[in-house]
């Protein structure tokens, strides 16, 4: 297991849709260990594989003292009539938080390391995390979901950090 470095905005791996995991081998097992160890730090809610430079569909979470992972996750349901508005941040966009609208509830389906079906669902922060991490695996950043004026502020702030 290893604590992995986080890729930051500008790295092309963050803008590339991740590949399905077709074979659960030692490399995938090691990836999951690294995802779990790297997310197990105060202030970290979720971590997608491409954020540590691996373009495979997997992410880990650390919400309300529960740490877990899912392979080949797909966002299969979100609340369509209940939303949450609040500041969202990202390990790949360090130090910046912007108001991002997300569904109040989300449900993800995938598999575990034994190839067995996994369902992860939740409301509020867990729902936000599930949506955020699935976006990562599709090559999106939360910045892409910002209202135009907020996105402009975010891009300016990112340029100022460089």
Automatic annotation (TrEMBL):
Enzyme class: hydrolase
Family according to the record: Belongs to the polypeptide deformylase family.
HAMAP family, sorted: Pep_deformylase
Family matches, as PANTHER family: PEPTIDE DEFORMYLASE (PTHR10458), PEPTIDE DEFORMYLASE, MITOCHONDRIAL (PTHR10458:SF2)
Cofactor: how bound: Binds 1 Fe(2+) ion.
Catalytic activity field: N-terminal N-formyl-L-methionyl-[peptide] + H2O = N-terminal L-methionyl-[peptide] + formate
Entry's Gene Ontology molecular function annotations: peptide deformylase activity
Alphabetical list of InterPro entries matching this protein: Peptide_deformylase, Peptide_deformylase_sf
Gene3D superfamilies: Peptide deformylase
CDD domains: Pep_deformylase
Cofactor: Fe(2+)
Listed name of the protein: Peptide deformylase
Keywords: Hydrolase, Iron, Metal-binding, Protein biosynthesis
Residues that bind Fe cation: 90, 132, 136
Catalytic residues in the record: 133
EC number in record: 3.5.1.88
Role this protein plays: Removes the formyl group from the N-terminal Met of newly synthesized proteins. Requires at least a dipeptide for an efficient rate of reaction. N-terminal L-methionine is a prerequisite for activity but the enzyme has broad specificity at other positions.
Top-level taxon in the UniProt lineage: Bacteria
UniProt cross-references to NCBIfam families, sorted A to Z: pept_deformyl, PRK00150.1-3
């Amino acid at each position: 297991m290893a604590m992995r470095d986080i890729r930051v905005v500008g790295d092309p791996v963050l803008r590339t849709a991740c590949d399905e995991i077709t074979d659960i081998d030692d490399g995938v097992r090691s990836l999951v260990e690294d995802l779990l160890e790297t997310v197990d730090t105060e202030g970290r809610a979720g971590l997608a594989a491409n954020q540590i430079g691996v373009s495979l569909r997997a992410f880990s979470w650390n919400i309300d003292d529960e740490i877990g992972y899912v392979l080949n996750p797909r966002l299969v349901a979100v609340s369509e009539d209940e939303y949450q508005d609040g500041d969202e941040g990202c390990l790949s966009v360090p130090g910046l938080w912007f108001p991002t609208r997300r569904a109040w509830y989300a449900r993800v389906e995938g598999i575990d390391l034994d190839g067995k079906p996994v369902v992860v669902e939740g409301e509020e922060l867990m729902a936000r995390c599930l949506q955020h991490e699935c976006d990562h695996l599709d090559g999106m950043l939360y910045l892409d979901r910002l209202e135009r004026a907020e996105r402009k502020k975010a891009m300016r702030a990112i340029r100022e950090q460089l």
